Structures are given as C-alpha cells and as structure tokens.
TrEMBL record:
Its main location: membrane. PANTHER family: ET TRANSLATION PRODUCT-RELATED, UNC93-LIKE PROTEIN C922.05C. The chain crosses the membrane at residues 28-52, 72-89, 96-115, 121-149, 161-183, 195-213, 239-267, 287-304, 316-336, 356-380. This is MFS general substrate transporter. It comes from Dendrothele bispora (strain CBS 962.96). It is a multi-pass membrane protein. The lineage of its organism: Eukaryota, Fungi, Dikarya, Basidiomycota, Agaricomycotina. It holds the Pfam family UNC-93. It is found in: Membrane. GO terms for cellular component: membrane.
Length: 423
C-alpha cells in the first residue's frame, strides 16, 4: 500500500486510500477487466444460452404452450426473488450468489432435453422455469454489483460494453445453431444433441465463478479498493432495501426506464419475427439481432466514456441518442405492422424476397436499440454509486424486479385477445 491518501470516488465523500496493484500474472488475474470478462462468460454460458434456446421459438419445441407456461412461472418467481436478491448477494457474497444463480439455467435447459425424451414431462419444465426465476434474480444481482463496482468512473461504459458483448455471444451462438439447422431443413423442433451441447456449456458456466477473484481483494485501475459488505445480517440487508430508496431517491427516476426495457421482446420475437417470416428467415433474423447487440453496446460505450464531455453531458447526450433511436425504430415498425394482422400474417417472407432487406434492417436496429438501452441503464446506476452492496440492491430490486413484472403480461395474456398494433 502506498504511503499517501487521495480523495477519489467515495460514496460518502471521504478520502480513499490508494493501493498498489499486483504485477505480472497475478496482476492480470486481478485486473478488473479480466474479472468482468469472466463474468461475461458466466452470462454467456447461462442467460446467453437461455436467450439462444428461447430464440429457437418455444424453447425449440413444436408445442410452445409448455414453454409459455414455464416462462410465466419463471418471471413470476423472478419478480419475487429479484426484490430480495440484492440482500442475499450482500449476505452470501457475490461469488457464491453468482454460482447459485447459474444452477437454474442448467436445470432449465436440461428440462427441455427431458421433455424431448419423455413428452409427458411438461410439469418438470414448468417447475424448472419457476426455480430458474429464483436463480436468475441471484445471478443478475451479483452480476450487476460486480460489473458496476470494478471499473472506475471513466471506465464504466467500456466495461459494460465488454460484458454485454461477451454475454450476447451466447445468443449469437444459439442463433447460428438454429440457422445451420434450418437453412435447408423443414424440421420444426430441436434435436437432443443441441440441448446436450447447451447443457454442457451451462455446466461450464456454473464452474467459472469458482475461479473468479474474491471481490474483497480487487483493486481498481486507479488504486482504490472495491467496497463490499462485511457479512451483514439478513435483518440489516432487508432494511437496506428501504435505506437504498431513502438515501438514493434518484433511482426512482429510472423506474420508467426499467419498465420499458424488456417489454418489446414479445412483439419483436413473436409478433414480427415469428409472424411474417419463414423458419429460414427467422433463424437469420435471430442471428443478426444478437450480433447487432454486440455492436450496439460498443457504440454507446464510446459516448458514455467520452472524456471530452462532463458526466452530466454524457448522461443527457446518451438519453437523446436513445430517444432518437426509439422514434426511428417504432415509427419504422408502425408502418410495417399496418401491413398485416393476426388473420393475414402467413409466415411466408424468405431471405431471397425483395421485401426482406428492409424488414431485416429493422430487426438489426432493434438489436442496436436493446443493447444501447440496457447498457445505458447500467451506466446510470453505476454513476450513482461505486459501492457493491448498494449496486446489488439497485440491480436486484430495480432491474430484476421490474423487468420480470413487465414480462409477465406478455407471456400470460392469450395472444388472441391482443392486437399486434396495440402491442
């Protein structure tokens, strides 16, 4: 440790001690970017492959009813578990919480393998979805706390982009599998080999947190140590939920952003991609969608970390960019949606049709927007605190809880009662 102190980035305004970072291989292992990259690979193997399975349509099954019911169970328990996930993370520690959270994804994908082998195992798929909901709340609370606590203020946009790029490789890989299977095939469901491959990868994802560094030993690139809760009681952590809202009321202003952040998936995947394209086109659309997310997160990170602007100016500038993207994509989508209804959609557009070009570009822009929106939301939370415990509350309560509540109606309401234009 150096013999001087310097006031930097403390949440309470006090000076922080500057520590000397380790050198060589140890320095590489304990580098914040290395740990955020490992975190990205956990999410690549677990929620990334979850996205890949769901992107196959109904979990890759011919009958999508069981998958829809499983998702209702998933997001119901996710909404409940997300409320307490930050407290659990701060009590158990982020490494253990991350590992516990990853188990649910392995079980969920395994349930689809089970129903492929035993068609009557629908109840197991639904139960696996409910368990995954609880696990997902834990994983995302730990992920958000670590990803936002490790970088300095000047690095948060770049670190979020690196994480988001690695995480979305899971969706890219899954979409590539779907595209390869369906490019010349008319089969409607996924074979056992695909599920087994995904199951092995999620198993690897469970192991990765074991090899990650202890957050208490992490030193940022500016020499400041990462602040982690020191074995707080459950009572203290549950009370911390209330304290977080009282001491940081500005988080309430982000609630509308959280409400909007996942709602659009149902229209994009079911009422656009799943409604007017054939299986080959849907598979290619999925691939370019998740690929565009990687570039979207990298693009917005340039603005979020731009040193020529103050942090306040970057926040306002990013909001303007998001607003322009919202208007562009939704007006574009509105004119396409006016061209068909549930009764007239015939899933006939192929990649060789002239009209496909414009429609796939809309899907690409949707991917850009999703990554920009999610990355900016994380950056806003990271700008409010560097404390891992407080960030776990932010992500666990706000991101997990509100994302899940907004997903529920989109899966549980029968499609026949909803107008696609209304969605």
């Amino acid at each position: 440790m150096s013999d001087h102190e310097k006031g930097v980035g403390s949440d309470d305004g006090s000076a922080q001690i500057i520590y000397e970072r380790p050198k060589g291989i140890k320095g590489l292992y304990y580098h914040p970017l290395t740990q955020v990259s490992l975190l990205g690979f956990v999410c690549f193997m677990c929620p990334g492959l979850f996205n890949a399975v769901n992107g196959l349509g109904g979990g890759g099954q011919l009958d999508t009813t069981t998958s829809a019911n499983s998702n209702v169970a998933l997001y119901s328990t996710f909404a409940f578990g997300g409320f307490f996930a930050g407290s659990i993370n701060n009590t158990l520690g982020s490494k253990l919480t991350l590992q516990l959270g990853s188990f649910g994804y392995c079980l969920y994908i395994g349930s689809y393998l089970a129903i492929n082998i035993h068609p009557g195992a629908g109840a197991f798929v639904i139960a696996a979805g409910a368990i995954l909901g609880l696990c997902a709340g834990l994983l995302w609370a730990a992920q958000g706390a670590l990803m936002l606590a490790y970088p300095t203020e000047a690095e948060k946009g770049r670190y979020i982009a690196v994480f988001w790029a690695i995480f979305n490789l899971g969706g890219v890989v899954g979409a590539a599998v779907s595209l390869g299977q369906n490019f010349n095939s008319e089969a409607g469901s996924v074979n056992n080999g695909t599920y087994i491959g995904f199951l092995v990868l999620t198993g690897i994802g469970i192991l990765i947190p074991t090899f990650m560094a202890d957050p208490a030993k992490m030193i940022r690139t500016d020499g400041t140590k990462v602040t982690v809760p020191i074995h707080p009681s459950w009572k203290t952590q549950l009370y911390g939920l209330w304290v977080t809202l009282v001491t940081d009321p500005m988080i309430l202003l982000l609630f509308p952003m959280f409400f909007c952040s996942n709602w659009f998936y149902t229209w994009q995947f079911n009422d656009y991609n799943g409604a007017i394209f054939n299986i080959r086109a849907r598979s290619l659309n999925n691939f370019v969608y998740w690929t565009s997310q990687i570039f979207g997160s990298l693009a917005i990170s340039i603005l979020l970390d731009f040193k020529g602007l103050s942090r306040r100016a970057r926040a306002f500038s990013s909001w303007i960019v998001l607003l322009l993207m919202i208007f562009l994509t939704h007006i574009w989508a509105y004119f396409y949606q006016k061209q068909y209804t549930r009764a007239t959609a015939d899933k006939s557009i192929d990649i060789y049709d002239a009209e496909y070009v414009g429609k796939v570009w809309l899907f690409i822009f949707f991917g850009f927007l999703d990554a920009m929106w999610q990355s900016t939301a994380y950056w806003y939370m990271g700008a409010m605190s560097n404390d891992a415990g407080k960030l776990a509350h932010f992500v666990g309560f706000c991101e997990c809880h509100f994302h899940s509540l907004l997903f529920l109606p989109s899966f549980s309401c029968p499609s026949i009662y909803r107008s696609r234009l209304f969605e």
